[in-house]
Amino acid sequence: MNNYAITFKPVNYKVSASEGSTLKDALVKSGLDFDFPCGVIGKCWKCLVKVLSPKIEALQKEVEHLSKNEILEGMHLACLTEIHSNMIVELNMEKNTDYNILQSSVEKNSAIFPLLKKDFIQLNLPSLEHQKSDLSRLKEKLILKNPDYRDLKIGISILQQLPDKLRKSHNKVTVIIDKNEILGIEKGNTSHKMFGIAFDIGTTTVVGYLMDLYSGKELAVSSSLNPQIKFGADVISRTTYANQNDNGLKLLQSTILKLLNELIDDVSKKSNIKRDDIYALTVVGNTCMHHLFLGLTPRYIAAVPYVPVINESIELNASELNLNINPAGRVFALPTIAGFVGADTVAVILATDIDKSKDIKLAVDIGTNGEMVLGSSKKLVSCSTAAGPAFEGAQISSGMRGANGAIDHVCFGESMTYTVIGDEKPRGICGSGLLDIVAGFVKVGLINKRGKLLSPDKFTNPAAENYSNRIITYNDTNAFLMVPASETANGNPILITQNDITSLQLAKGAISAGIKILVEKLEINLDDIKEVLLAGAFGNYMNPHSACTIGLIPKELRSKIKMVGNAAGSGAKLALLSQIEFERADEITNKVTYIELGAQKHFNLEFARGMQF
Amino acid sequence: MNNYAITFKPVNYKVSASEGSTLKDALVKSGLDFDFPCGVIGKCWKCLVKVLSPKIEALQKEVEHLSKNEILEGMHLACLTEIHSNMIVELNMEKNTDYNILQSSVEKNSAIFPLLKKDFIQLNLPSLEHQKSDLSRLKEKLILKNPDYRDLKIGISILQQLPDKLRKSHNKVTVIIDKNEILGIEKGNTSHKMFGIAFDIGTTTVVGYLMDLYSGKELAVSSSLNPQIKFGADVISRTTYANQNDNGLKLLQSTILKLLNELIDDVSKKSNIKRDDIYALTVVGNTCMHHLFLGLTPRYIAAVPYVPVINESIELNASELNLNINPAGRVFALPTIAGFVGADTVAVILATDIDKSKDIKLAVDIGTNGEMVLGSSKKLVSCSTAAGPAFEGAQISSGMRGANGAIDHVCFGESMTYTVIGDEKPRGICGSGLLDIVAGFVKVGLINKRGKLLSPDKFTNPAAENYSNRIITYNDTNAFLMVPASETANGNPILITQNDITSLQLAKGAISAGIKILVEKLEINLDDIKEVLLAGAFGNYMNPHSACTIGLIPKELRSKIKMVGNAAGSGAKLALLSQIEFERADEITNKVTYIELGAQKHFNLEFARGMQF
């Protein structure tokens, strides 16, 4: 049976699909978060996609339902379109997949001192009186630039190319150097061209920032969903996949490497930079993503006592990972702190300088896990809690990611108002929306301390009365009717169930307990914390007021909250631009004391307390 | 914190030690094979050392346990003695360290300090309280052995195997270390198994010596003709082949690598050692052989101004050359001096210690080329002459290699007697035989000063008369009938033609001119030379008396000639057994001044003079 390559734009994600299968099958296989609300074929007309290539004829059913313009544009229903060749398909991102991948990051002034160096030199000619070897003549000029270059090493493959390169370039070459090693030699003067990419590999999304290693400027950004999603949505399920399948680890690794090559391609095209002029990559990610990227088993992270293979930073050749940059290129993976506090957290510390701060600061990065760091230049403690997927919209009855159609902000006043991403009819609720809703419940008295959604006859707060008619019975318990079926995009009502509230309680209980234990370990009071830095996507979209209302962040800290954008990405960029910052990452790892919450006797008590409102 | 230099006698090995650390720490760091049986402090009294400088007071504990004599001699316990200054310490070699003496024709004591190290460790188990990564737990035990191991690097492929290796071996592993890098990790305790091979790659023959890197013992030797001979008999013809054929260089390289793999196989079978227990290879050879082995073009060695690609030593992974030893194995190619003075000459200097000698010595290694080194610890000069293939039996009418059937020694008295290798009927003459024959011609007056073979009517020396009937006419000139056809193995007569004599004259002229110019460059007289060391196969088989008779070696040096066997091979072995010796090789390269004879104005004059008898 023939297989074809189907490329989904604009995320540039490729899947292989078999002859006669549908675009819907390919989309499902891709793991891209494309909704098929109706679940059946040719019914709801929501799975419209634009087929860029090849041109295919509209089916009778499509002609009947689509406008002339849509047909001319090549719009087709994914559930009806059969695959008989390679195809390029554009997804309607505005409608379906406007992933608010956080690309912005806190810019920080830092001396530029890139991880790799380039030196242009002109060698002396050899003569019968000065029969110096090619390498000696190269080194003699390099040593004039830096006496430490005396002990430079050179790999055999570079050395093999040296004599002809010198002679073809009339002894004018540019030498690429990494600390004590010559990585490559280029003909002529290429010393002004050196670019690098900082990668932030998240469980869900991956972002790459192309940087000019001399000016420090960001030239292009490219991001995508992490295609490992098809092997599992979270780190535990991916670890299970790696453990239980032959070549599972290799497959997970090659999947992320393939994406990185696509992002490398994308940023180089966007910025008109040759891939061969990219020499350095830095990589951050949680410990599992970090391990999968390096082909290290995450098996022992996932089980007690949760140990990673490596914490310290590691450098390797890009060619060892088949990453398509300059053959001399190097990959710099930042260090991790523990099995569940990864290189992304190290990068957050790097970007926010908590480790240098006189004041005590708290950094919180909430995703599937919540990672927290508390401290100052004197001492740093960190922990990780299984925040659960509530904030990412998963396991919530009407939950969805922060894409178009998601209710992202809600305000409970005399009446309730909400906003929807993409300004369209709502399809579900994303994490920040859920946070606002539950904060509203607390505010107007729709739930009690333990989080129970009250029946109207149990209301004690008069403000709750405005919402009496929204309390309905669902699966024998109370539920809150957020949006009636008639007002939603798919004709299904959007509810908040008791289970949804419990999911959120578990997440906020874990995080607030984590914060409490860190405060305790540092032997300080909440008042001593001068700043709370919220990093990561959810932290930047959520309403801090709501976070404090429900007790996710202690109320005492409300005025100290500051959003720091994608601080993990910023840290990766800093390390790329400065060897000093990259080395500081290891110092940070050594400095941070990791607190295993599971080993704290009173964690369960704090957790139970933290679940209350 | 202050650091002090600690010198260990009698091996003269220095380490740097920090203020307040103990002599035990310094000894551990040194890697010298000194035992600490008890493992704790001040218990077993086995780690006694003699502190030569400074004088330090005995501790109470030492006073209690040591004899008065021991205290007066400056004996101290290494585990108790703190370092607060530079120190010179004598180790009790008899008791503690089995320093084996190298079995080679060059007698030399050398401490064994192999290029690679193995350390067996048992890791601590991780726990929820101590969630250290696998690599951290590995390093924490290694650092106890040597504080410098803190900065050990590890390659990604080794790291990928680490977690499962640790768990399958119950946390007991042996780590293979090369300076600052972990090369490999093996399950269980394999620390007693570490072997290496020293290769001497000659233009004509290749020898491999399998060595036990701990005992220093030679376990097996294997040798073979260099199969590159099929691409050319000498370095110039092989260089031409490499230059003029597509993939010529690759073919020459793969040819020698294939042979090395066969020799590896052979010595491992002979000694019943697994190839996987071989971790290190050292390689010496002339500069062209060295370049071909490494896949470096010899093109620029062969043309003015004769520059090699690299002079300094280079280390690489055995796997980069597809050499079948342990996957962690490393190759150490010794440095070269110039385009025609190679790593073999460096190894000769290493083995003969000319660079450390107070007396001025001359080392001569005669093969297709004649390489010479003259000097002492103060200054060393070297040169190379195209000796031509006369001494290897090539381009001589009845010439052959030193194999069975070769006339190897000849004595001209009243009659002529000769010996044949293998005691069989002669088939030809090898280099040492030719040397004796021409020396005999000089002695009995068969040739004149210019080397012309005289007709009997021109004889002036009565001793020549005995050989009148052997002077025959061959191709219109005189020739000497060495063995009549009836007495040879193949039924052909063995002759010495005028051309044969001329070939030898060219060789001896070049070598004696080289010696003269070195003596001149060093601004000494021949009398100042205290020893003449003859290295290499020909140097060891030839009769030194004959060499002086024909003026190959100046007559004044006759009593100073010493045979040093395969000193190049000995040097390769030394470098394999001792990192200190390997590093000394680079010092030697930097110390030796290379004299390009072609650039010496009076070389041709000396050469012409040197051709006379």
From TrEMBL, chains A, B:
Domain of life: Bacteria
Matching InterPro entries: 2Fe-2S_ferredoxin-like_sf, 2Fe-2S_ferredoxin-type, Beta-grasp_dom_sf, Corrinoid_activation_enz, Raco-like_middle, Raco-like_middle_sf, RACo_C, RACo_linker
Domain 2Fe-2S ferredoxin-type intervals: 4-95
Residues annotated as transmembrane: none
Pfam families recorded: Fer2 (PF00111), RACo_C_ter (PF14574), RACo_linker (PF17650), Raco_middle (PF17651)
Protein name listed in UniProt: ASKHA domain-containing protein
Organism from which the protein derives: Clostridium moutaii
